[in-house]
Design a protein that fits this description.
13-stranded mixed beta sheet; 24% strand; alpha+beta
């Protein structure tokens, strides 16, 4: 970035933030938006309210109250973020990515904090967890929605919730259910995803997979090795069953007594002729920092076991193995049409790094993990404002990348981007 480009960023930011004026009724409240976003985009070593306010010559409490108490419409701001993405950054082969991130916190007053699995440190820790929906197309990626995961211990203690300002209607929801709500909210604002991707924490939930399929949302998601399915759908009967003519009859529908039991995907790979005898085929996924990333894969059609233990959605099962470490094996499922090429599904499956990059940039550059507060509203607004800041960075990056391409006469990376992984001869 040269000096001329740096000089134009401030007026660009001013014009960008004007697009959120409708979220504020009062001008004095609106004036805090550029202070907060400007602080997140600055080179301050710490980007919580206090250092950002002091750098702007403002009393820290004012910026804290801007988050937690002042009257403005954070939901409308989130909707505006999604409208900007839809109108100005939507593109072909768009991928939505569901993932979560965690931040270590001290004490027990931060909304949602408890001792739980913390991916940031790789063990159980006192932390809060937030679920996010990312959007990626071409070289552009950003986060379009986020929400707090409220543990059951919090949900059952409404006095503690009221103390943190958590509304009574906000209760415990499994993370996969939050993910479906984020997806539904984005769709209501016109955000469409050609594909959706997620890790095994979400892929292990049959109700989540069923929910996406019911919405006709194509997905490619990782599943655990214990994911249960059949190669062929077993027979189901509606006749009630009563052992020995006594006791309460089993509910119907149910599997027939002679139906095969479901198998775990790891067992299918070892014992099912459909996968076991199928040769591995190598695919070039993408170029990494240390060279080409190549995996080999097999594929078959399966029927997943639903939440009731019955045959559910028919899916692709793609088994991928790292050619540099044959012990690293991943299992993916997809509701793509039967004729979909394995390379296409692999490209979607290995696109989750885009949301991980969003988390990394937002924490290192914008201060996603540096929120310090005790109110639910303050946290929700911090998540949305951080997305506002990061969307500006993504827009600037895309614009400068385009300028560089035109200046040097090099085709845009988007134009020569592969729409699917490349088969390795």
């Amino acid at each position: 970035m040269d000096a001329d480009q740096i000089r134009i960023l401030k007026p660009m930011l001013t014009r960008y933030l004007k697009r959120f004026d409708g979220c504020f009724r009062r001008q004095d409240t609106r004036a805090h938006l550029p202070v907060y976003v400007g602080g997140q985009l600055s080179d301050l070593p710490a980007k919580s309210c206090e250092p950002m306010a002091l750098a702007a010559g403002m009393v820290p409490r004012t910026l804290q109250e801007f988050l937690a108490h002042y009257c403005w419409d954070e939901d409308r701001m989130r909707d505006q973020i999604q409208q900007i993405v839809v109108c100005e950054h939507a593109g072909p082969n768009s991928i939505g990515i569901i993932d979560e991130t965690s931040d270590v916190k001290k004490g027990d007053k931060t909304p949602g904090v408890q001792r739980q699995w913390c991916g940031k440190v790789g063990k159980k820790e006192n932390c809060l967890v937030t679920v996010h929906l990312g959007y990626a197309t071409g070289d552009f990626h950003c986060l379009v929605d986020s929400d707090l995961f409220l543990p059951e211990s919090w949900s059952e203690d409404r006095g503690r919730c009221r103390e943190a300002g958590i509304p009574d209607e906000v209760v415990y929801r499994p993370k996969w259910q939050i993910a479906l709500e984020l997806h539904a909210r984005a769709r209501e604002n016109g955000v469409t995803f050609d594909w959706l991707s997620f890790d095994e924490g979400y892929g292990s939930k049959p109700l989540y997979l069923q929910g996406l399929d019911d919405r006709e949302q194509l997905f490619v998601g990782e599943v655990p090795t214990t994911f249960s399915c059949w190669i062929k759908a077993p027979a189901v009967t509606d006749r009630p069953y009563q052992r020995g003519g006594r006791g309460r009859p089993r509910k119907t529908p149910r599997l027939r007594s002679d139906a095969p039991r479901p198998s775990r995907v790891k067992h299918l790979l070892k014992h099912s002729p459909t996968l076991r005898d199928q040769p591995w085929v190598q695919y070039h996924i993408k170029e990494g920092q240390k060279g080409p990333i190549v995996w080999e894969a097999k594929q078959t059609r399966i029927v997943m076991k639903d939440a009731d233990g019955l045959p559910g959605v028919e899916l692709h099962l793609v088994v991928a193995r790292n050619v540099l470490d044959l012990n690293e094996v991943k299992f993916f499922v997809s509701n793509a049409p039967p004729e979909t090429h394995v390379s296409t599904m692999l490209l979607v499956a290995f696109s989750r790094w885009r949301v991980e990059r969003c988390f990394q940039d937002q924490k290192q550059e914008v201060g996603l993990d540096q929120w310090e507060g005790r109110t639910w509203l303050g946290l929700q607004r911090h998540l949305i404002l951080t997305s506002v800041s990061y969307l500006f960075l993504a827009r600037v990056r895309e614009q400068l990348r385009g300028e560089k391409s035109r200046t040097h006469g090099v085709p845009s990376p988007r134009r020569r981007r592969r729409t699917r992984a490349e088969l390795v001869a």
